[in-house]
Amino acid sequence: MSLWDRIMTAAARLFGPPPAIDTDGQPSRIEPAGVTAALIALGAKMAKSDGVVTLDEVVAFKTVFRASPENEKEIGRFFDLARQTTLGFEKYAQIIARKYRAQPAALEDVLDGLFHIALADGVVSDDEMEFLKRTAEIFGFSQREFERVRIAHMGRASDDPYLILGVDEDISDADLKKAYRRMAAANHPDRLMARGLPKELLGLANHKMAMVNKAYAEIKELRAAK
Asked: What global pTM score does this model have?
Protein backbone atom coordinates (compact mmCIF):
# COMPACT_ATOMS: atom_id res chain seq x y z
CA MET A 1 0.00 0.00 0.00
CA SER A 2 1.45 3.39 -1.03
CA LEU A 3 1.84 6.34 1.35
CA TRP A 4 -1.12 8.13 -0.20
CA ASP A 5 -3.23 4.98 0.01
CA ARG A 6 -2.46 4.89 3.72
CA ILE A 7 -3.25 8.61 3.98
CA MET A 8 -6.61 8.13 2.29
CA THR A 9 -7.36 5.23 4.63
CA ALA A 10 -6.41 7.38 7.60
CA ALA A 11 -8.48 10.25 6.23
CA ALA A 12 -11.57 8.06 6.07
CA ARG A 13 -11.17 7.42 9.77
CA LEU A 14 -10.32 11.04 10.61
CA PHE A 15 -13.41 12.34 8.87
CA GLY A 16 -15.54 9.76 10.60
CA PRO A 17 -15.91 9.46 14.39
CA PRO A 18 -13.48 11.54 16.49
CA PRO A 19 -10.21 9.76 17.33
CA ALA A 20 -9.96 7.87 20.58
CA ILE A 21 -8.97 9.97 23.60
CA ASP A 22 -6.26 8.91 26.03
CA THR A 23 -6.61 9.26 29.79
CA ASP A 24 -4.75 12.58 29.62
CA GLY A 25 -7.49 13.99 27.41
CA GLN A 26 -5.39 14.03 24.24
CA PRO A 27 -6.06 12.21 20.94
CA SER A 28 -4.54 8.73 20.98
CA ARG A 29 -1.52 7.93 18.85
CA ILE A 30 -2.03 7.27 15.17
CA GLU A 31 0.35 6.00 12.51
CA PRO A 32 2.49 8.43 10.45
CA ALA A 33 0.05 8.32 7.54
CA GLY A 34 -2.63 9.54 9.93
CA VAL A 35 -0.40 12.42 11.04
CA THR A 36 0.18 13.35 7.41
CA ALA A 37 -3.56 13.16 6.81
CA ALA A 38 -4.11 15.51 9.76
CA LEU A 39 -1.55 17.95 8.35
CA ILE A 40 -3.25 18.03 4.97
CA ALA A 41 -6.71 18.28 6.54
CA LEU A 42 -5.59 21.24 8.65
CA GLY A 43 -4.20 22.97 5.56
CA ALA A 44 -7.42 22.39 3.64
CA LYS A 45 -9.53 23.72 6.49
CA MET A 46 -7.26 26.76 6.70
CA ALA A 47 -8.18 27.53 3.11
CA LYS A 48 -11.86 27.20 4.00
CA SER A 49 -11.74 29.28 7.18
CA ASP A 50 -12.90 32.52 5.52
CA GLY A 51 -15.81 30.72 3.87
CA VAL A 52 -14.42 30.60 0.32
CA VAL A 53 -11.58 28.50 -1.08
CA THR A 54 -9.90 30.49 -3.85
CA LEU A 55 -7.77 29.14 -6.68
CA ASP A 56 -4.77 30.95 -5.17
CA GLU A 57 -5.30 29.07 -1.91
CA VAL A 58 -5.47 25.75 -3.75
CA VAL A 59 -2.20 26.57 -5.50
CA ALA A 60 -0.64 27.58 -2.19
CA PHE A 61 -1.82 24.35 -0.63
CA LYS A 62 -0.20 22.34 -3.40
CA THR A 63 3.00 24.36 -2.96
CA VAL A 64 3.14 23.49 0.73
CA PHE A 65 2.15 19.86 0.27
CA ARG A 66 4.24 18.84 -2.70
CA ALA A 67 2.94 15.57 -4.12
CA SER A 68 4.31 13.60 -7.01
CA PRO A 69 2.25 13.75 -10.24
CA GLU A 70 0.80 10.29 -9.68
CA ASN A 71 -0.51 11.37 -6.25
CA GLU A 72 -2.06 14.70 -7.26
CA LYS A 73 -5.48 13.16 -7.95
CA GLU A 74 -5.59 11.46 -4.54
CA ILE A 75 -4.47 14.53 -2.63
CA GLY A 76 -7.02 16.57 -4.60
CA ARG A 77 -9.79 14.24 -3.46
CA PHE A 78 -8.57 14.50 0.10
CA PHE A 79 -8.39 18.30 -0.10
CA ASP A 80 -11.93 18.51 -1.47
CA LEU A 81 -13.17 16.31 1.37
CA ALA A 82 -11.39 18.28 4.07
CA ARG A 83 -12.30 21.76 2.81
CA GLN A 84 -16.06 21.22 2.95
CA THR A 85 -16.13 22.70 6.45
CA THR A 86 -13.79 24.09 9.09
CA LEU A 87 -15.55 22.01 11.74
CA GLY A 88 -13.13 19.67 13.45
CA PHE A 89 -9.94 21.59 12.63
CA GLU A 90 -9.00 21.62 16.32
CA LYS A 91 -9.01 17.82 16.31
CA TYR A 92 -6.38 17.76 13.57
CA ALA A 93 -4.33 20.45 15.31
CA GLN A 94 -4.35 18.34 18.47
CA ILE A 95 -3.14 15.28 16.57
CA ILE A 96 -0.26 17.29 15.12
CA ALA A 97 0.54 18.92 18.48
CA ARG A 98 0.61 15.49 20.09
CA LYS A 99 2.97 14.13 17.46
CA TYR A 100 5.44 17.03 17.62
CA ARG A 101 4.96 18.27 21.19
CA ALA A 102 8.68 17.76 21.92
CA GLN A 103 9.63 19.51 18.64
CA PRO A 104 8.30 23.09 18.70
CA ALA A 105 10.34 23.92 15.59
CA ALA A 106 8.32 21.33 13.65
CA LEU A 107 5.08 22.85 14.89
CA GLU A 108 6.31 26.25 13.75
CA ASP A 109 6.97 24.73 10.32
CA VAL A 110 3.30 23.71 10.17
CA LEU A 111 2.14 27.16 11.30
CA ASP A 112 4.33 28.71 8.58
CA GLY A 113 2.55 26.56 6.01
CA LEU A 114 -0.86 27.65 7.27
CA PHE A 115 0.15 31.32 7.03
CA HIS A 116 1.36 30.68 3.47
CA ILE A 117 -2.07 29.31 2.54
CA ALA A 118 -3.93 32.11 4.36
CA LEU A 119 -1.93 34.79 2.54
CA ALA A 120 -2.36 33.22 -0.90
CA ASP A 121 -5.18 35.60 -1.88
CA GLY A 122 -3.33 38.60 -0.46
CA VAL A 123 -5.57 39.16 2.57
CA VAL A 124 -5.84 37.39 5.91
CA SER A 125 -9.44 37.69 7.07
CA ASP A 126 -10.52 37.91 10.71
CA ASP A 127 -11.78 34.32 10.54
CA GLU A 128 -8.48 33.14 9.10
CA MET A 129 -6.54 34.96 11.83
CA GLU A 130 -8.70 33.36 14.51
CA PHE A 131 -8.04 29.96 12.91
CA LEU A 132 -4.29 30.64 13.02
CA LYS A 133 -4.37 31.93 16.60
CA ARG A 134 -6.37 28.95 17.86
CA THR A 135 -4.07 26.51 16.07
CA ALA A 136 -1.01 28.23 17.57
CA GLU A 137 -2.63 28.01 21.00
CA ILE A 138 -3.21 24.27 20.57
CA PHE A 139 0.41 23.93 19.46
CA GLY A 140 1.47 25.54 22.74
CA PHE A 141 2.81 28.83 21.38
CA SER A 142 2.72 31.93 23.56
CA GLN A 143 1.20 35.16 22.27
CA ARG A 144 4.70 36.60 21.74
CA GLU A 145 5.77 33.53 19.76
CA PHE A 146 2.66 33.75 17.62
CA GLU A 147 3.31 37.44 16.97
CA ARG A 148 6.84 36.63 15.84
CA VAL A 149 5.53 34.11 13.30
CA ARG A 150 2.71 36.42 12.21
CA ILE A 151 5.02 39.36 11.65
CA ALA A 152 7.49 37.17 9.78
CA HIS A 153 4.74 36.58 7.21
CA MET A 154 2.73 39.79 7.33
CA GLY A 155 5.29 42.42 8.29
CA ARG A 156 5.17 45.29 10.72
CA ALA A 157 7.28 48.47 11.02
CA SER A 158 10.99 48.85 10.33
CA ASP A 159 11.87 46.62 13.28
CA ASP A 160 10.28 43.54 11.69
CA PRO A 161 13.59 41.76 11.00
CA TYR A 162 14.52 41.69 14.67
CA LEU A 163 11.30 39.95 15.64
CA ILE A 164 11.65 37.48 12.75
CA LEU A 165 15.07 36.46 14.11
CA GLY A 166 13.76 36.57 17.68
CA VAL A 167 16.35 39.09 18.92
CA ASP A 168 16.29 42.53 20.56
CA GLU A 169 17.25 45.64 18.61
CA ASP A 170 20.23 46.36 20.88
CA ILE A 171 21.87 43.00 20.20
CA SER A 172 25.55 43.22 19.26
CA ASP A 173 26.66 42.48 15.71
CA ALA A 174 28.49 39.36 16.88
CA ASP A 175 25.47 37.99 18.75
CA LEU A 176 23.22 38.92 15.83
CA LYS A 177 25.35 36.79 13.52
CA LYS A 178 25.18 33.89 16.00
CA ALA A 179 21.39 34.22 16.23
CA TYR A 180 21.10 34.28 12.45
CA ARG A 181 23.28 31.18 12.09
CA ARG A 182 21.22 29.31 14.70
CA MET A 183 17.98 30.24 12.95
CA ALA A 184 19.36 29.34 9.52
CA ALA A 185 20.65 25.99 10.78
CA ALA A 186 17.33 25.18 12.47
CA ASN A 187 15.41 25.84 9.26
CA HIS A 188 17.65 24.05 6.79
CA PRO A 189 15.65 21.52 4.71
CA ASP A 190 17.75 18.66 6.10
CA ARG A 191 16.83 19.72 9.64
CA LEU A 192 13.15 19.81 8.71
CA MET A 193 13.37 16.21 7.51
CA ALA A 194 15.22 15.28 10.68
CA ARG A 195 12.35 16.74 12.71
CA GLY A 196 10.15 14.06 11.21
CA LEU A 197 7.88 16.15 8.99
CA PRO A 198 6.75 14.51 5.74
CA LYS A 199 8.86 15.27 2.68
CA GLU A 200 5.78 16.93 1.17
CA LEU A 201 6.48 19.86 3.51
CA LEU A 202 9.97 20.61 2.21
CA GLY A 203 8.66 23.74 0.53
CA LEU A 204 8.21 25.22 4.01
CA ALA A 205 11.93 25.06 4.73
CA ASN A 206 12.81 27.01 1.60
CA HIS A 207 10.14 29.60 2.42
CA LYS A 208 11.33 30.00 6.01
CA MET A 209 14.99 30.22 4.97
CA ALA A 210 14.12 33.01 2.55
CA MET A 211 12.43 34.97 5.37
CA VAL A 212 15.39 34.46 7.73
CA ASN A 213 17.92 35.51 5.09
CA LYS A 214 15.86 38.58 4.18
CA ALA A 215 15.54 39.64 7.82
CA TYR A 216 19.28 39.33 8.43
CA ALA A 217 20.08 41.29 5.28
CA GLU A 218 17.64 44.05 6.28
CA ILE A 219 19.19 44.40 9.73
CA LYS A 220 22.70 44.64 8.30
CA GLU A 221 21.50 47.27 5.85
CA LEU A 222 19.79 49.26 8.61
CA ARG A 223 22.93 49.19 10.75
CA ALA A 224 25.21 50.10 7.87
CA ALA A 225 23.06 53.16 7.16
CA LYS A 226 23.48 54.54 10.68
From this structure: 0.59
